[in-house]
């Protein structure tokens, strides 16, 4: 995990650590924060894949979101496996990915329901679906963390 702590986290002045260094060190030890950071990266993958599906493949906003979810869940699986839950037991990769993807379906239901309502009834979200993706992702975050921690990446 230490390779993920930013370089400035160890900075000192004389014998005293900088307050930002202590705060950064504590925050990076927070598994939930690391999960949220990976989730933010996953939201960016989700958004990029959604725009690719819509503008590149000609899919509508609803079926394009299925494609973007698969891209995002793959990204978040590998990032969480390495960064958030690096100390967890390792299973067979394909099986662990499948359990992770399945465990994220509850969060996806919350996420997608809010997304669908927003792109359907809020003109700004319809024109800029990234807004709905971000709000939906935030809605599913807590559920997804609990599922990942308890079902997929159990303590070793």
Give a short summary of the structure.
It contains 7 helices and 2 strands; from the N terminus they run ββααααααα. It has 156 residues and is mainly α. The model is unreliable at 1-12 (pLDDT under 50).
What do the pLDDT scores average to?
84
- Structural category is mainly alpha
Helix content: over 70%
Distance between the termini: 15 Å
Radius of gyration: 18 Å
Uncertain spans, ≥5 residues at pLDDT below 50? 1-12
How many domains would you count in the coordinates? 1
Sheet with the most strands, sense and barrel status: 2 strands, antiparallel
Helix tally equals 7
Membrane topology: Multi-pass membrane protein
Domain GtrA/DPMS transmembrane: 34-153
GO biological process, one term: polysaccharide biosynthetic process
Family: Belongs to the GtrA family.
Keywords:
7 helices; single chain; about 160 residues; mainly alpha; membrane; two-stranded antiparallel sheet; globular; disordered N terminus; transmembrane helix; transmembrane
What does this protein structure show overall?
It is a single chain. This protein is mainly α. It has one domain. Helix content is 74%, strand content 3%. It has seven helices and two strands. Strands 1-2 form a two-stranded antiparallel ribbon. The longest helix is centred in the first third of the chain and has 26 residues, at 31-56. The model is unreliable at 1-12 (pLDDT under 50).
């Amino acid at each position: 995990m230490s390779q993920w702590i930013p370089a400035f986290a160890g900075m000192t002045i004389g014998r005293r650590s900088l307050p930002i260094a202590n705060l950064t060190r504590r925050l990076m030890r927070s598994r939930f924060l690391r999960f949220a950071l990976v989730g933010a990266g996953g939201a960016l993958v989700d958004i990029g894949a959604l725009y690719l599906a819509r503008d590149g493949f000609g899919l509508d906003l609803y079926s394009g979101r299925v494609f973007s979810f698969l891209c995002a869940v793959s990204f978040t699986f590998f990032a969480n496996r390495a960064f958030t839950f690096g100390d967890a037991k390792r299973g067979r990769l394909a099986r662990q990915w499948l359990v992770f993807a399945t465990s994220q379906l509850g969060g996806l239901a919350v996420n997608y329901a809010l997304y669908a309502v927003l792109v359907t009834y809020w003109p700004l979200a319809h024109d800029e679906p990234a807004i709905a993706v971000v709000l939906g992702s935030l809605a599913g975050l807590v559920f997804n963390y609990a599922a990942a921690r308890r079902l997929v990446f159990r303590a070793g």
